[in-house]
């Protein structure tokens, strides 16, 4: 990965972030483990994810400007996130990254961060 570019720049910026989000959420809505913890109207969630991923990848701090510090774990505590749901989320995200054409070193680096974040959100055991 070009060390002079942020991951945001390396994947293609806003266009690619939007493609990831648009590929990801239909998968979430179709997944039997994930669908129950997401609202019927997914549009506001998609917008928050777009803002968050932009910032998470080193782009403009859009999420913080609108909502304050991401506080990921705290914001996800109201939802029962099990290890199985974290893995389901990651599976959907992997497919979305594939669909958006994110590959190579930048994908590997991003993936490591997403895996850590997904597992950090777990707050409930599988039943």
From TrEMBL:
The keyword Transport applies. PROSITE patterns: GLOBIN_FAM_2. InterPro entries: GlbO/GLB3-like, Globin-like_sf, Globin/Proto, Globin_bac-like_CS, Hemoglobin_trunc. The keyword Glycoprotein does not apply. Transmembrane segments: none annotated. Its cofactor is heme. Heme binds at residue 119. The lineage of its organism: Bacteria, Bacillati, Bacillota, Bacilli, Bacillales. It comes from Laceyella tengchongensis. This is Hemoglobin. Belongs to the truncated hemoglobin family. Group II subfamily. Gene3D superfamilies: Globins (1.10.490.10). One of its GO terms (molecular function) is oxygen carrier activity. Keywords: Heme, Iron, Metal-binding, Transport.
